[in-house]
Amino acid sequence: MNKDQVKGQIKNIAGKVQEATGKLVDSKSQEVKGIKLQVKGEVQKGYGDVKEAVKDARHAAHNTTKSHV
Question: I need a surface site. Which of 5, 18, 27, 34 has the fewest CB within 10 A?
Fold first, then answer.
């Protein structure tokens, strides 16, 4: 797990809390801010997921190359 995955997940959770709080106090602006934060979190986590997949693929390719030499 990398920092983008962690930070993205934290933003997503914080956004869910903010959205729920907005609903609780009947504040559409807080709900929308929470939803925006969730989207930002999902994007950042997705970016982290891609980085992790690339790293794993490089590692696998490197190990494959070593074992065939």
Answer: 27
Return phi, psi of residue 37, to 5°. -65, -35
Both structure tokens of 7 = 């930070």
One-letter amino acid of 30: Q
Residue 62 confidence (pLDDT): 87
Rounded CA gap, 8 and 34, in Å?
A: 13
Whole-prediction pTM: 0.83
For residues 44 and 2, give the distance between their C-alpha atoms in angstroms, rounded to a whole number. 11
Select from 52, 50, 49, 19 the least CA-distant residue to 34.
Answer: 19
